[in-house]
Amino acid sequence: SVASEDQKFCLREVLDTFKLCLSENKEVYLQHYVAGWRGLVKFLNSLGSVFGFISKDAVNKIQILVNHLNGENGSQYVTIQLMVKYELENELVDLTKRGSHPESGCRTLLRLHRALRWLELFLERLRTSTEDSKTSVMCSEAYNESLAPHHPWVVRKAAGMAFCVLPGRPAFFEVMNVGPPEQVVAMLGEALPLISEVYQITEELYTQHNLLDLP
Ligand code: 1PZ
User: Which of 39, 52, 53, 177 lies in disulfide reach of 14, CB 3.0 to 4.6 Å?
Assistant: First the structure.
């Protein structure tokens, strides 16, 4: 039916939104960054309710950024570069401990930025995996190398439990809805350099301004 086609979700389209993130002079558009995350959350939700606690946090952070974008000073949030400059110049960021700005764009985006590294590592493993590779192993390896050091024990534990119920590689590929495995691999090969570039640019920006440990 038309309705079920509407809901059909294709990971290629989501990863393509990361293409739109970069401006000509390599600035990152927040609007497209957030749109990319929205799509990823949709995908995560389609994997089952066990991932609810993860998507809830992601949705919460996406919403904080959208509120900045749609707020009074939305024009200062068009790109991540502008956002960093604006929030720092106006002392809108808690730099050493949480205080009056728990929802700064800088600290909120940092959490998604770290998760983007997880995505990059996970998708790279998926791309180079073989038929008998385990998604749960690829996922937890990527997690341990990216997000885990920033998470408290309970979150790491809950995440580990969620990874165990990830569908196996064939079913996972099917949910991605990209086509046969060869096509999934090819799509990932195209999408990964883009995701990686967005990650690198943000990482450099945050390094320059010493923002990588925002509380
Ligand atoms: C396909 C399998 C999906 C696995 C996703 C791997 C990421 C696991 C992350 C688990 C964290 C969930 C609970 C929230 C923790 C928050 O405390 C932290 C820090 O934020 P703070 O407390 O400082 O405000 N939140 C995050 O680290 C952001 C996590 C976003 C994860 C988005 C994953 C999207 C997955 C897309 C799947 C294709």
Answer: 39
pTM over 0.90: yes
DSSP 22: B
Residue 30: which H helix or E strand, with range? Answer: helix 30-45
- C-alpha 87/C-alpha 104 separation (Å) is 8
Instruction: Indicate the helix (H) or strand (E) that contains 56.
Output: helix 52-70
List pLDDT tens digits, range 97-114: 999 999 999 999 999 999
Q: Return the CATH number at 164.
A: 1.10.3520.10
CA of 3 to the centre of ligand 1 (A): 30
Provide the residue range defining the domain that includes 171.
Answer: 2-208
Any domain includes 214: no
Which residue's CA lies nearest to atom 9 of ligand 1? 54
Neighbours of 47 (CB within 10 A): 17
Find tokens 């534990």 and name the residue.
157
161 Cα: distance to centroid of ligand 1 (angstroms) = 13
Q: Which atom of ligand 1 is nearest to the CA of 60?
A: 24
> How many helices (H) and strands (E) in the chain?
10, 0
